[in-house]
User: Fold these one by one.
Assistant:
Number 1:
Amino acid sequence: MTETDEKDVHTEHCCAEHGCKYGDPDCPVVNDIKLQSYPCERCDEDARDDEKQGEAIYRAVYQHQGGKWEANESREVWSETAKRYRRFLREIERREK
Ligand SMILES: [Zn+2]
Ligand SMILES: [Zn+2]
């Protein structure tokens, strides 16, 4: 499966973490085929935790690469890192079933 940048109702309203707004089991966002364009309401609530989690993951990875902590220290990077981490985790969990 490949992720694309194409937009549709699902990418505008659904959430990979919190589910399809339309209850569609084939939702491309929930099934990791497309990336959602915006965080949903519950995502906003989780965003603070995302930042913390993402920063921790990001720092851990950079430390692995020699402890270099370079410029792009931002909330956005941390949140994306946390989301990416959970997406990979879901893929791995799915593979194990
Ligand atoms: Zn959907
Ligand atoms: Zn959400």
Number 2:
Amino acid sequence: MADGAVNLTIDGMPVSAPPGTLLIEAAKQAGVLVPHYCYHPGLPVAGLCRMCLVEVEKAPKLQIACATPVAEGMVVHTQSAQAKSARMGVLELLLINHPLDCPICDQAGECELQDFTFQEGRPATRYSPDYAKRFNPVEDFGPDVLYVPNRCILCTRCVRFMEDVTKEPVLNVSERGDRAYIGIHPEARLDHPWAGNVVDLCPVGSLLSKDFLHKARAWELDKTASVCTGCSQGCNVTLDTRDNVVVRVRPRPNLLVNRYFICDHGRMNYRWMNRGDRIEAPLVKRGGGELQAVDWDEALERTAGVLRGAGGRAVTLASPRMSTEALFLARELCAGLDWTGAVQIVMGEEAPLAGVPNLALRPERAPNGTGAELLGYGRDYAAALQAAESAAVVVVLDEPEVTIRTSGALIYLGYGRDYAAALQAAESAAVVVVLDEPEVTIRTSGALIYLGTVLPEGARNADVVLPIANVAEEEGTFVNRDGRVQRYFQAKPAPGMARPAWWVLAELLRTLGRGESLAEAGAAFDRLARSVERFAGLSYASIGAVGAKP
Ligand code: SF4
Ligand code: SF4
Ligand code: FES
């Protein structure tokens, strides 16, 4: 037992918890989930649904586990006949007016009302089939939130979130008794930048996301732990995929980064992961100028041939949306050269979540600017562009709407933005590497090597095209603004022969005789941690699911 801890027994299991711990949380230590609706660990306690009633020996009546702190020697029974009967009664009352909507409700399959009714509700109703259930029409609460009052169990999680977490109290409980419903201020909309969290918080299908409406049933979804790419906060998320298409992004709890929440910008930032116009095989230019599909060996050999013998100055222009591993290996590609690296980051407005310290949609709308910085990439993009003018090698990692002129070779991987000046500078480079730019126009009198997810019209004159995976199709790490290294996992397969950028770059290095093949992202990260002091002491395994700081 821990020092200073309170010792008690829950369902016969000894439990030790810090003073002040609520019974509902202490029970989790004993592997017991006490049924509950109004309680949520990220919200102030309300104690109003009475679904968490448990028996505490020597107490005169049942206690609510969400508002009762642990006490020394307490003996708690969550499964006693008295406790179960009381909870069965609570469920019966909640179901009086609840419609039989499960077949058409988005929450079905992940609904706490379904789950607890199945677990300990009455097998059948005692109400007459002629009883007319309460009916209220669906309301449009905001840009992405619908309210279905008939399904509401009035737990007030949504009201408390808006009041205590966003500090924008636009929701309330209107009317009283069996007429009560969740009301919204007549002149307000649920359009706070973090408002979408009410959909996740609602334990039933009363608050729905318009974006996800009727897209999938819960049991059809595969869930993958990932990290939001929307800004430098690095919120932990779950990617929900149906038939290998990302259909929903939800928060994944991480008390050190985003607690239980994500902002609406991050929630909607997934459609690009499903682009269908992808490069599916390595392509090389044949004699007639046509691009022809080849295997990876031939494509890598051709690429290495372009890189061999390059000398002098090298510039890497990188997207801050590339994995730490790809940024590291792209730097390694220029080892031995006079190297300059820079990232260009799109900026926006900050949108804090007032009730949670150190949580905001950050102005830096990219997930890995800090990772790039730790690896030696600077933020003085203009200077890097200038340096590129006299460079022997220019590596561009991920930039859209780019036009690249170079007398050298161009290697392209990634996504992009406004690289006009860099492109001009690249005209005098011997080699240009671009990491994925879908709207790129590239003119070069030298060799052009293109690594990307999609092939822009302007890159169709490339000598070699190497297809890479996007963030939903690979494993890797990002470093958030606080220096926390966080892993994201593969949610769906990459199309055709596309491979993660870290694999492509590692194979290029191997072909150039500068390193071994890497079989997995973890090996790429561990190579990085061994080589870069700022990552010393970290290993891919030790980062785990919630991240770690070097
Ligand atoms: S809408 Fe959902 S979260 Fe809000 S009170 Fe009703 S059941 Fe609870
Ligand atoms: S705050 Fe940033 S990282 Fe978090 S969900 Fe929003 S965009 Fe994504
Ligand atoms: S969860 Fe305890 S009263 Fe609602």
